[in-house]
C-alpha cells in the first residue's frame, strides 16, 4: 500500500482545520460527524493493512467516508482527502482504475460547483481550487506509479538475491566436491605410490632377511628412497600452495636420477600456478609408473615452456601396456589436466614402451 503515515497526517490536518473553523465561526463544521468520519477512516485503513475485507468494498466505503468528512468540514481542507483516491485505486486495481478515479473526482467537483454556484467558472477562487486539485491528483498518480514500480523492482531484487544465494550454495558444494577429488588425486599420485612401494620393499626385506641378506639390504635402500620421495612430494605439495615458492622446472628436476633424464626448455614465468601444478602431477605419475610397472632401463622427461602452451613428454623403453586399460592414476591425470584446459595422449603397446604427452594451452 501507500506510505502508511500519510493518511493519519491528513486526517489530523483535516480535524484540526475543521474544529478551528467551527470554533472561530469561519465555517459550518459539524464536529460529531467530522470526528466520526475520520475515526471510521482510521478503522478502514487498519482493516486494509491487515489484508482483510474486499478491496472493492473497502474502496467504496473509503470514498463514501471522504464525502461525509468533506460535508462535515467547514474549512474546506477535507477536499485534500480526494488526492488519496487515485493512490488507493492504483495500489488496489492498477493504473487504469487510478486514472479513472482521478477523472471521476474532478468531474464530481465540477458537478458540485455547478449545483452550488451558477456561473462558477467566473469565480477565480473556485477555478483555482479545481486546478490545484487536478494537479494534486496528477501528482498522486505519478507518486503511486513510482511506488508500485519501486515495489516491483524490490521484489525482483529479492528474487535475484535468493537465486544468487542458491547459486553460491551450489558453487560451494561443487567446490567442496572438486577439492575432495583433487585431494584424492594428490594422495594417489603422490603419497599413495611411494608409501605402497615402501610397504612392498619392506615386506621383501623381511622375507629375504635370512635367506638373502644382500637382497634384503637392497630392498631397504629402495624403501628408504621411496620414503624420501614421499617426503619430497609432501614438500612439493606444500610449496604448490604458495605460488612464489613453487617452480615447476625445479620440481620436475627432482624426479631425475637413475634411469630418468630431465630436459627442460623455455621460461615458466607467466604460466598460471594451476597449470604448473597439474603438469607436475602428470610428470610425477608418468615417472612413477615407468619406474614401477614398465621395467624401463631409460626414462626421458621433456618439459617445454612455450608462449602458446606447456608441453610435457614422458617416454620410456619399458614393457608398454594397452592404453584402454587405465587405472585410477591415468584417469585422475586426465581429469586434472582437463580442468586446466589441456589434454593427455598415451601412446603405448605391449613390448614397445610408452610415450605420455601432456599439452596445456597458455
TrEMBL record:
Membrane-spanning parts: 59-90, 96-115, 127-148
Enzyme class: transferase
All copies of domain Histidine kinase, residue ranges: 279-362
InterPro entries on file: HATPase_C_sf (IPR036890), HATPase_dom (IPR003594), His_kinase_dom (IPR005467), Sensor_HK_TwoCompSys (IPR050482), Sig_transdc_His_kin-like_C (IPR004358), Sig_transdc_His_kin_sub3_dim/P (IPR011712)
GO molecular function, a single term: 4 iron, 4 sulfur cluster binding
Protein name: Oxygen sensor histidine kinase NreB
Species per Swiss-Prot/TrEMBL record: Virgisporangium aurantiacum
CC per GO annotation: cytoplasm; membrane
Biological role stated in the UniProt entry: Member of the two-component regulatory system NreB/NreC involved in the control of dissimilatory nitrate/nitrite reduction in response to oxygen. NreB functions as a direct oxygen sensor histidine kinase which is autophosphorylated, in the absence of oxygen, probably at the conserved histidine residue, and transfers its phosphate group probably to a conserved aspartate residue of NreC. NreB/NreC activates the expression of the nitrate (narGHJI) and nitrite (nir) reductase operons, as well as the putative nitrate transporter gene narT.
Protein location: Cytoplasm
Keywords from the UniProt entry: 4Fe-4S, ATP-binding, Cytoplasm, Iron, Iron-sulfur, Kinase, Membrane, Metal-binding, Nucleotide-binding, Phosphoprotein, Transferase, Transmembrane, Transmembrane helix, Two-component regulatory system
Entry keyword Nucleotide-binding: yes
Primary localization class, coarse: cytoplasm
Organism superkingdom: Bacteria
SMART domains for this protein: HATPase_c (SM00387)
Keyword match Nucleotidyltransferase: no
Catalytic activity line of the entry: ATP + protein L-histidine = ADP + protein N-phospho-L-histidine
Listed PROSITE patterns: HIS_KIN
Known cofactor(s): [4Fe-4S] cluster
EC code(s) of this entry: 2.7.13.3
Amino acid at each position: 500500500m501507500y506510505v502508511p503515515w500519510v493518511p493519519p497526517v491528513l486526517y489530523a490536518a483535516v480535524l484540526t482545520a475543521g474544529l478551528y473553523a467551527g470554533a472561530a465561526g469561519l465555517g459550518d463544521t459539524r464536529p460529531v460527524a467530522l470526528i466520526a468520519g475520520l475515526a471510521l477512516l482510521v478503522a478502514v485503513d487498519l482493516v486494509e493493512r491487515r489484508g482483510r475485507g474486499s478491496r472493492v468494498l473497502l474502496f467504496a466505503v473509503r470514498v463514501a467516508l471522504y464525502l461525509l468528512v468533506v460535508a462535515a468540514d467547514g474549512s474546506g481542507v477535507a477536499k485534500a482527502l480526494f488526492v488519496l483516491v487515485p493512490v488507493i485505486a492504483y495500489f488496489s486495481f492498477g493504473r487504469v482504475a487510478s486514472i479513472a478515479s482521478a477523472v471521476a473526482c474532478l468531474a464530481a467537483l465540477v458537478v458540485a460547483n455547478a449545483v452550488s454556484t451558477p456561473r462558477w467558472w467566473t469565480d477565480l477562487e473556485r477555478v483555482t481550487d479545481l486546478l490545484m486539485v487536478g494537479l494534486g491528483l496528477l501528482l498522486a498518480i505519478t507518486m503511486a506509479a513510482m511506488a508500485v514500480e519501486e515495489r516491483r523492482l524490490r521484489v525482483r531484487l529479492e528474487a535475484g538475491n535468493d537465486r544468487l544465494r542458491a547459486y553460491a550454495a551450489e558453487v560451494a558444494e561443487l567446490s567442496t566436491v572438486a577439492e575432495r577429488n583433487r585431494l584424492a588425486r594428490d594422495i594417489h599420485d603422490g603419497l599413495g605410490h611411494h608409501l605402497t612401494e615402501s610397504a612392498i620393499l619392506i615386506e621383501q626385506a623381511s622375507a629375504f632377511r635370512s635367506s638373502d641378506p644382500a637382497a634384503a639390504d637392497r630392498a631397504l635402500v629402495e624403501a628408504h628412497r621411496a620414503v624420501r620421495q614421499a617426503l619430497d612430494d609432501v614438500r612439493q605439495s606444500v610449496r604448490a600452495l604458495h605460488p612464489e615458492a613453487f617452480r615447476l622446472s625445479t620440481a620436475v628436476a627432482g624426479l631425475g636420477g637413475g634411469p630418468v633424464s630431465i630436459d627442460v626448455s623455455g621460461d615458466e614465468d607467466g604460466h598460471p600456478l594451476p597449470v604448473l601444478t597439474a603438469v607436475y602431477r602428470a610428470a610425477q605419475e608418468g615417472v612413477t609408473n615407468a619406474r614401477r610397472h614398465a621395467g624401463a632401463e631409460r626414462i626421458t622427461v621433456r618439459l617445454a615452456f612455450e608462449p602458446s602452451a606447456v608441453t610435457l613428454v614422458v617416454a620410456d623403453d619399458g614393457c608398454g601396456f594397452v592404453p584402454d586399460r587405465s587405472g585410477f592414476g591415468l584417469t585422475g591425470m586426465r581429469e586434472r589436466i582437463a580442468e586446466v584446459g589441456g589434454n593427455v595422449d598415451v601412446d603405448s603397446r605391449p613390448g614397445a614402451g610408452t610415450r605420455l604427452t601432456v599439452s596445456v594451452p597458455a
